[in-house]
């Protein structure tokens, strides 16, 4: 057997990579990990964690209004973004240290460096040093991308939103997925005037129709201006648009060479930064002919796997159409010594899934217990206001597969009804008519993320509608309706 420097070399220090490195090291394996940016990856540094803290921050203005309606003498004042941002980054620094110290305590050797493949068993660090390993695990995640259009690099992507110096007065968000909808609600809650252009007929494609319909309605009711069937066709620096003549000068010349539309995983966008520092706004034209000027245009148009310039193809690792690493159910790539987990494989782009993929990889490779990753019935939540929690099939998917019953209720929650607030909530179960098994559950409510985590256990366990019904309600709660819906609203 060849004498390798390590048993495992992990490239990428995000949630999946760190977990895999630690659990592999716990088996006695010699493990190294390289990370070019900050330890913690997308989830901790520029995704789930800072996003959720912003969700919390964005709630308070509304809560203060509710408090007043409940009889409190409450005035909230204005939101101090720099103060919050300072606290936010201090927290991210703390978490990064926690990740680093977990690796140190696990005896994982850390390289703060970019790493690329040199051959099937070697990686090359940025300084040219090569390290060999019996197994290499790619966990480099993904990064936001901008559509291919002139001046797209004037806009921001999600990575940039945590770094803004000032809170904008108004923004245009492009996209209708998770990130677009979550940030529309966050920024709106913080007092920013938000417009959202989505090219499709309804936001949140892929989610249950009724559930996404209610979320869209509630987001619009909260003050976000949603334009469906609308996309951006043109954008320029606002002061280059001569409104009288319609003449547009060249913004690339004004701000230097264009940056790549495919943003790096670090979210660096020097051109956008220069623009912000110069206080320049952006003029935009839509496919529907609508013109507008915004402090920021935010592209929430999806994410791509971070596989560029990694030497993957050179060593024979097959990539899919979007650049994702093609892997089998054990996360093994087309090169037997090279595995990949997390967003870089474009399977299910969720942190807990990446962590599970990392642990299954360690079971398979270091514990001799071949463990495929289970991607079925994974609960998830969109942290909009209200939240959308979901697991399993949508009504549309389920009805195409067989005969179903749909149990659904929508009502005004007690908390908001009391103060006459036009909030609504929705709980929905999709049931297999023959086996009675719950195929899907969709919840639109405050804290739906918390609810779907718990209901998810029962759905994943394959419970039937009748088993749900045998559980007594907890009264008065929103979620009690999940066990009190007696009659189907329809069958399909
Ligand atoms: P999504 O794939 O969810 O959404 C991308 C959106 O951009 C879609 O509405 C899509 O439209 C639109 N779009 C794509 N290309 C263009 C284009 N050229 N012009 C205009 N619109 C375009 O990506 P996100 O970046 O929001 O999120 C990526 C993934 O990250 C999610 O799928 C999810 O797995 C994960 N995530 C999870 C979160 C959570 O668990 N709460 C939070 C954030 C992200 P269309 O629908 O028509 O394709």
- The SS-based structural class is alpha/beta
Q: What's the alpha carbon Rg, rounded to whole Å? A: 24 Å
- At the first level of CATH, the class of the largest domain is Alpha Beta
Largest sheet: 7 strands, mixed
In the predicted model, the low-confidence regions spanning at least 5 consecutive residues are 250-261, 263-267
Number of domains: 3
Give the CA-CA distance, first to last residue. Answer: 59 Å
| Overall strand count | 22
If classified by CATH, what would the architecture of the largest domain be?
A: 3-Layer(bba) Sandwich
Shape: globular
The CATH fourth-level homologous superfamily of the largest domain: FAD/NAD(P)-binding domain
Tell me roughly what share of residues is in helical segments.
25-40%
Count helical runs.
Answer: 14
* CATH fold assignment of the largest domain: FAD/NAD(P)-binding domain
Mean pLDDT metric: 94
What is the beta-strand fraction? 15-25%
Q: Are any ligands bound, and if so which? A: NADPH dihydro-nicotinamide-adenine-dinucleotide phosphate
Describe this protein's structure.
The structure is a single chain. By secondary structure, this protein is α/β, with parallel strands linked by helices. Helix content is 31%, strand content 22%. It has three domains: 6-143 and 305-365, FAD/NAD(P)-binding domain (3-Layer(bba) Sandwich); 146-301, FAD/NAD(P)-binding domain (3-Layer(bba) Sandwich); 380-491, 2-Layer Sandwich (Enolase-like, domain 1), CATH 3.30.390. The chain has 14 helices and 22 strands. The model is unreliable at 250-261 and 263-267 (pLDDT under 50). Bound molecules: NADPH dihydro-nicotinamide-adenine-dinucleotide phosphate (NDP). Residues 147, 174-180, 182, 198-200, 205, 231, 300-303, 349-350, 380-383 line the site of NADPH dihydro-nicotinamide-adenine-dinucleotide phosphate (NDP).
């Amino acid at each position: 057997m060849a004498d390798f420097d390590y048993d495992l070399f992990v490239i990428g220090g995000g949630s999946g990579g760190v977990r895999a490195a630690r659990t592999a090291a716990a088996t006695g394996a010699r493990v190294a990990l390289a990370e070019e940016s900050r330890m913690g990856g997308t989830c901790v540094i520029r995704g789930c964690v800072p996003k959720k803290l912003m969700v919390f921050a964005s709630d308070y203005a509304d809560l203060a209004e509710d408090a007043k309606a409940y009889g409190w003498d409450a005035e909230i004042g204005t939101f101090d973004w720099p103060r919050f941002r300072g606290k936010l980054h201090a927290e991210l620094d703390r978490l990064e240290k926690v990740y680093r110290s977990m690796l140190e305590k696990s005896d994982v050797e850390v390289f703060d460096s970019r790493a690329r493949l040199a051959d099937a068993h070697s990686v090359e660090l940025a300084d040219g040093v090569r390290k060999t390993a019996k197994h290499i695990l790619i966990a480099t995640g993904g990064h936001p991308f901008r559509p291919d259009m002139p001046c797209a690099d004037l806009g921001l992507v999600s990575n940039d939103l945590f770094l803004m110096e000032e809170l904008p007065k108004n923004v245009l968000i492009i996209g209708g997925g998770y990130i677009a909808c979550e940030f529309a609600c966050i920024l709106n809650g913080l007092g920013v005037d938000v417009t959202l252009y989505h090219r499709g007929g309804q936001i949140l494609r892929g989610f249950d129709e009724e559930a996404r319909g209610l979320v869209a309605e509630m987001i619009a009711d909260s003050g976000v201006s949603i334009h469906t069937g609308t996309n951006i066709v043109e954008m320029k620096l606002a002061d280059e648009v001569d409104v009288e003549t319609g003449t547009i000068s060249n913004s690339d010349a004004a701000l230097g060479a264009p940056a790549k539309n495919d943003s790096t995983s670090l979210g660096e966008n020097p051109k956008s930064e220069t623009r912000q520092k110069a206080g320049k706004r952006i003029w935009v034209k839509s496919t529907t002919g609508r013109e507008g000027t915004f402090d920021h245009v935010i592209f929430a148009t999806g994410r791509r796997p971070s596989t560029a310039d990694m030497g993957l193809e050179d060593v024979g690792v097959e990539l899919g159409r979007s650049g994702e690493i093609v892997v089998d159910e054990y996360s093994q790539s087309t090169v037997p010594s090279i595995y990949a987990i997390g967003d870089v494989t474009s399977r299910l782009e969720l942190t807990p899934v990446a962590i599970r993929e990392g642990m299954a990889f360690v079971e398979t490779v270091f514990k001799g217990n071949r463990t495929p990753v289970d991607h079925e019935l994974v609960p998830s939540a969109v942290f909009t206001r209200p939240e959308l929690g979901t697991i399993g099939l949508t009504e549309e998917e389920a009805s195409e597969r067989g005969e179903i019953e749909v149990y659904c209720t929508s009502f005004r929650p007690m908390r908001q009804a009391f103060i006459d607030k036009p909030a609504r909530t929705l709980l929905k179960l999709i049931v297999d008519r023959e086996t009675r098994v719950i195929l899907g559950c969709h919840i639109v409510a405050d804290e739906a993320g918390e609810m779907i985590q718990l209901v998810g256990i029962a759905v994943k366990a394959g419970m039937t509608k009748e088993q749900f019904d045998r559980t007594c309600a907890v009264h008065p709660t929103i979620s009690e309706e999940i066990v009190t819906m007696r009659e189907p609203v329809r069958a399909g």
